[in-house]
């Protein structure tokens, strides 16, 4: 039966869902927005709609593929794979009930917004790489990775969808038998994104998805495809034989390190590519970090420890050395000397073993969107710390604006000497902290950006504390450190990484939440968790501060940051500062 774009299905019930409007079309299906009644929620319903020109064999193949998609996706459980709520058949038409992803597809997002920034690209790449890595671990190859099969919600979450042509990973014996017999498989996949081995009908494994993900990267960075041809066969031959252009030829801010990652992902021979998608994601993240890596001196912050009436400052005495990440003389992502050598003298290769040591979660990738395991505690006393203005340093460098809504810190100290402002009234041990931060002025025009953030559990002398800081210019980054003025190495890096959920650029507000429970810290930026709790498990963690003052931190001379909505919810009675 021929179906005219499915409009006649509006108002009909499929399972517990009533179809309301058409959202889009596939080759042999339509996706509808629907109202589900058990439970009550908006969902998407994909309905098989046979095309007029399909013969009986083609109809059977597409029908089987539709059911195959439902069965495979139902067997997979991952936060970045679109789940299947239910599937069945209604009046001879199979259907699949799925979550409604209000952001549409990544392809639609790019058609409206244009090519993605490097930060956005890594943000989505990390999520889809996690989904594909899980898919491969479960014994499946997706075989159709492309922007149209990546769905988005309104908060930046991405989900991989459409497993209609996914294949079971072949055993070694099956591969040997196929090669011996000279058999080939039917060409399936989207020609623009198909891997050379797919195009030749050979047995595929996860490295085929690496290639398709590489084409996807090329497209989202340039809004162009690397190969164009008038026919499917001609396009397949280009994938098999032609070297692709590099994004850096099209877009000036794509540096050679990023080009090298794309080039390696698009190697013709599978053994020459990244051997899994996580390696691709990690290498892309490392290539972005290359852009801003410098070695710099780290100065002890200038202290602000005023009396109740008169603000004052004392300059610190100690300094330390470590990597920093802005364009001038800033800290990088603390990736380690081994990685730095690799990045400087070779093309980007698999870096998981090096990077995993320094990242708080199991893979480099972007911070995961699923919430980390927040320590459970009974949080009681809620305090608005900015409501008590007299408990903060007040001077030309530390002041509330005319509305009283924002507390500003202007760093007028000597260059490379950060400023710290501590809340004077009480100490906190375990707590939840919420704060909004806004960079008002940068330290220098065209600078790569400056770090600023929050001090946790500081003693009154500022000799021991934790520091969480962010960089909101250039590439969004974060770093979590412990400072001990009595140690031979005063700064200990606990975690660091790219933070694409940060709203970069001057004047943009970022919301930070930190749950501190013992030596465990769960951190979220703009509602997105950085992953599992960061634990202070360094060799000298026994001397780490267990309680102390909360404060604010601004790093560079000439930088101004406005802080607001500082709410602290303490889980135990807090002590007064003596």
Reported by name, the CATH topology of the largest domain is Jelly Rolls
Mean pLDDT: 78
CATH superfamily of the largest domain: Exo-inulinase, domain 1
CATH 2nd-level architecture of the largest domain:
Sandwich
Distinct helical segment count: 11
Approximate helicity band: 10-25%
Total DSSP E strands: 29
Distance between the termini: 82 Å
| Helix/sheet category | alpha+beta
Topology:
Elements: E1 13-14, E2 17-25, E3 29-37, E4 40-48, H1 56-75, E5 86-90, E6 93-99, H2 106-113, H3 118-137, E7 140-141, E8 150-152, E9 158-160, E10 167-168, H4 172-181, H5 196-199, H6 206-222, H7 232-241, H8 256-265, H9 277-290, E11 294-299, E12 303-304, E13 313-314, E14 319-324, H10 337-345, H11 352-355, E15 381-384, E16 398-400, E17 407-410, E18 419-422, E19 431-441, E20 451-458, E21 464-471, E22 477-484, E23 491-498, E24 509-517, E25 520-525, E26 528-529, E27 534-535, E28 549-554, E29 560-570
Helix pairs in contact: 3-6, 3-9, 8-9
Biased composition (Low complexity): 298-310
InterPro entries: Kinase-like_dom_sf, Prot_kinase_dom, Protein_kinase_ATP_BS
GO molecular function: ATP binding; protein serine/threonine kinase activity
């Amino acid at each position: 039966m021929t179906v005219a774009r499915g409009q006649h299905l509006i108002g009909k019930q499929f399972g517990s869902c009533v179809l309301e409007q058409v959202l889009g079309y596939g080759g042999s299906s339509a996706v509808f927005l629907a109202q589900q009644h058990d439970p009550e929620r908006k969902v998407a319903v994909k309905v098989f709609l046979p095309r007029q020109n399909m013969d009986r064999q083609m109809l059977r193949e597409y029908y089987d593929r539709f059911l195959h998609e439902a069965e495979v996706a139902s067997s997979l459980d991952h936060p970045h794979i679109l789940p299947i709520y239910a599937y069945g058949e209604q009046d001879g038409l199979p259907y699949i009930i799925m979550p409604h992803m209000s952001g549409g597809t990544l392809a639609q997002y790019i058609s409206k917004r244009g090519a993605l920034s490097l930060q956005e690209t890594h943000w989505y790449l990390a999520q889809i790489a996690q989904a594909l890595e899980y898919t491969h671990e479960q014994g499946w190859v997706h075989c159709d990775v492309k922007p149209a099969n990546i769905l988005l919600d309104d908060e930046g979450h991405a989900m991989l969808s459409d497993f209609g042509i996914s294949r079971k990973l072949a055993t070694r014996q099956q591969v040997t038998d196929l090669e011996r017999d000279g058999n080939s498989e039917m060409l399936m996949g989207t020609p623009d994104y198909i891997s050379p081995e797919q195009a030749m009908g050979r047995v595929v494994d996860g490295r085929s998805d690496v290639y398709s993900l590489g084409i996807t990267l090329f497209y989202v960075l340039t809004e162009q495809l690397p190969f164009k041809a008038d026919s499917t066969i001609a396009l397949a031959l280009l994938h098999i034989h032609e070297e692709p252009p590099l994004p850096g030829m099209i877009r000036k801010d794509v540096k050679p390190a990023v080009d090298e990652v794309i080039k390696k992902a698009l190697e013709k021979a599978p053994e020459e590519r990244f051997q899994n998608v996580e390696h691709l994601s990690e290498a892309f993240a490392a290539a972005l970090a290359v852009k801003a890596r410098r070695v710099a001196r780290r100065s002890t912050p200038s202290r602000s420890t005023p009396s109740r009436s008169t603000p004052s400052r004392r300059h610190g005495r100690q300094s330390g050395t470590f990597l920093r990440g802005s364009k001038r003389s800033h800290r990088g992502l603390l990736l380690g000397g081994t990685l730095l050598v690799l990045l400087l003298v070779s093309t980007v290769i698999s870096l998981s073993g090096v990077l995993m040591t320094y990242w708080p979660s199991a893979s480099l990738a972007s911070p995961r969107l699923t919430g980390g395991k927040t320590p459970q505690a009974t949080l009681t006393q809620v305090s608005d710390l900015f409501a008590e203005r007299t408990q903060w340093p007040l001077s030309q460098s530390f002041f509330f604006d005319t509305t009283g809504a924002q507390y500003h810190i202007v760093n007028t100290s000597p260059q490379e000497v950060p400023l710290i402002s501590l809340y004077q009234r009480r100490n906190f041990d375990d707590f939840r902290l919420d704060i909004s931060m806004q960079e008002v002025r940068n330290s220098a025009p065209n600078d790569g950006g400056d770090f600023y953030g929050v001090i946790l559990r500081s003693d009154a002398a500022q000799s021991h504390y934790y520091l969480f800081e962010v960089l909101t210019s250039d590439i969004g980054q974060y770093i979590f450190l412990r400072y001990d003025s009595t140690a031979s190495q005063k700064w200990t890096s606990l975690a660091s990484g790219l933070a694409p959920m940060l709203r970069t650029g001057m004047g943009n507000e970022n919301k930070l939440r930190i749950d501190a429970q013992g030596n465990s810290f769960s951190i979220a930026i703009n509602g997105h968790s950085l992953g599992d709790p960061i634990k202070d498990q360094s060799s000298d963690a026994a001397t780490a501060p267990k309680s102390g003052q909360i404060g604010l931190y601004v790093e560079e001379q000439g930088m101004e940051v406005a802080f607001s909505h500082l709410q602290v919810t303490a889980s135990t009675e807090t002590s007064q500062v003596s």
